[in-house]
């Protein structure tokens, strides 16, 4: 079996001086990457390609995430900020090109097609989500659903190539892990009011708040004190913890249904950070 070393291999593409000096990159999609590698590596027919497929997918995801950091307007005149914006565009293009090159040179044309179709679906979902946000028609649950689907699409494309043993479990486990990660990050977003706009809490208050409270959300620069008051009034952090707790329990149930003890053990370890925050710890982990 192959050992997991995707982040280290990816550094040859991400750690260019020009990028590191002049701009920031999004976080590496570590959880989804490790999860995909674990499933592919468990499959006898795919284990020899697990590293290649996972690396290529991680680079595509990194490319998409890097492009998401590009500001919508190019009106920035300050040289440093303008250069950072330009390099984000180029870096995103570069990561996407590397995925194509890696798969093409090994003759994995079908996988190029699958990931390319997934990229199209990601962009469609992003446009749908953007339109709902712009029209202020997004609910808090819509927000979670859209974000989970957007973050999952590239990795879901592997459902078609997995063995019959793991194919049924893959979508549920992937989405469940992504949902846990998203809720986990949303909890930390509540610690900074600068990250409040567009968060789960923002859409929850927009959905359930009074007319005056909804107006407060629309101002260009929200009042920090008012935001904290709203977060407290609607128990945003408490609700997020409850959602995370519910999701971790569902994730455990999905994992327990897997036939492979080794894969079960690996996935439980991957989910342990979420379990610590919710006070849960599966018996499988206690026995390791």
UniProtKB/TrEMBL annotation:
Name the UniProt key words of this record, in alphabetical order. Transferase
Q: What is its EC number?
A: 2.5.1.30
EC supergroup of this enzyme: transferase
One Gene Ontology molecular-function label? heptaprenyl diphosphate synthase activity
Q: Key word Transferase present in the record?
A: yes
| InterPro entries linked to this entry | HEPPP_synth_su1
Kindly provide the name given to this protein in its UniProt entry. Answer: Heptaprenyl diphosphate synthase
Q: What is the organism lineage in this UniProt record?
A: Bacteria, Bacillati, Bacillota, Bacilli, Bacillales
């Amino acid at each position: 079996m192959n050992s997991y070393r995707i982040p280290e291999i990816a550094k040859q593409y991400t750690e260019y001086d020009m990028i590191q000096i002049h701009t920031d990159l999004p976080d590496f999609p570590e959880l989804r990457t490790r999860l995909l590698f674990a499933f592919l590596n468990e499959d006898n027919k795919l284990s020899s390609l697990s590293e290649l497929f996972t690396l290529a997918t991680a680079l595509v995801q990194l490319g998409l995430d890097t492009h998401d950091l590009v500001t919508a307007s190019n009106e920035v005149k300050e040289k440093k900020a303008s250069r950072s914006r330009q390099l984000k565009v180029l870096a995103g293009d570069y990561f996407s090109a590397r995925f194509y090159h890696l798969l093409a040179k090994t003759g994995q044309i079908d996988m190029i097609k699958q990931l390319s179709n997934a990229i199209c679906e990601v962009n469609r979902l992003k446009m749908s989500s953007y339109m709902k946000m712009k029209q202020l028609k997004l609910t808090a649950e819509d927000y979670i659903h859209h974000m989970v689907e957007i973050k999952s699409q590239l990795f879901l494309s592997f459902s078609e190539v997995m063995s019959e043993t793991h194919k049924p479990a893959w979508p549920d486990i992937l989405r469940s892990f992504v949902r846990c990660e998203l809720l986990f990050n949303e909890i930390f977003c509540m610690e900074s009011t600068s990250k409040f706009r567009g968060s789960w809490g923002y859409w929850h208050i927009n959905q359930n708040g009074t007319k005056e409270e909804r107006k407060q959300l629309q101002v260009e620069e929200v009042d920090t004190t008012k935001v904290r008051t709203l977060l407290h009034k609607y128990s945003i952090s408490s609700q997020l913890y409850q959602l995370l707790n519910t999701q971790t329990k569902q994730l455990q149930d999905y994992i327990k249904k897997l036939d492979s003890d080794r894969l079960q053990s690996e996935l439980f370890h991957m989910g342990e950070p979420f379990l610590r925050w919710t006070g849960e710890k599966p018996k499988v982990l206690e026995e390791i």
